[in-house]
Amino acid sequence: MATIEAAITINAPVDKVWDVISDLDNESKFWKGTKSIRNISKEGNTVTREVTIAFKDSKCMQTVTLQPKKRILATFTEGIINGTKTMHLIPEGEKTRIEAIWDMKLSGMMGMFTGMIKKHIKNGTEQALESIKQEIEK
């Protein structure tokens, strides 16, 4: 498994940050590696969805669990990616720190390329966090 970590501090309270990052339908606005999202079901704070990622237009199944104003856990359940992406919100007075942590690998024969794409995912994550920051602070 590859662990990828990135973080950013946003000049806004947790409530405002949560409103943006918990809008799962707008995820592709910030995450350039996410091409499209199709929600399949929602039960409480858990959403099952199909995500098309930029890597060869691959489709992945995800179960996303929202823990309001604390974290979002996306578990990849089928497709080219195995593992999780977790977004933690950490209040820092009037600011909020977002920590994004991937614990993932590519599935099957693609597993040998996990190390190669780790840098690409880290860059994409840093870009997404910066885009989220700009959206919230504008």
Description:
The protein has helices spanning 14-21, 27-30, 114-137; strands at residues 2-10, 34-43, 46-53, 59-67, 71-78, 81-92, 95-106. It has a single domain, classed as START domain (Alpha-D-Glucose-1,6-Bisphosphate, Chain A, domain 4). Helix 1 packs across helix 3 (114-137). The relative contact order is 0.25. It has three helices and seven strands; from the N terminus they run βααββββββα. It is of the alpha+beta class. The longest helix has 24 residues, at 114-137. It has a seven-stranded antiparallel β-sheet.
Which key phrases capture this entry?
alpha+beta, 138 residues, 26% helix, 7 strands
**Unreliable stretches covering 5 or more consecutive residues:** none
The number of distinct helices, counting runs of at least 4 residues, comes to: 3
Assembly level = single chain
Distance between the termini: 36 Å
| Spatial extent as radius of gyration | 14 Å
Overall pLDDT: 93
The general outline is: globular
Name the helicity range.
Answer: 25-40%
State which percent range the strand residues make up.
Answer: over 45%
Largest sheet: 7 strands, antiparallel
- The first-level CATH class name: Alpha Beta
Q: Supply the number of structural domains.
A: 1
Question: Count of DSSP E strands?
Answer: 7
Structural class: alpha+beta
Provide a compact summary of the structure:
Helix content is about 25%, strand content about 50%. α1 packs across α3. By secondary structure, it is of the alpha+beta class.
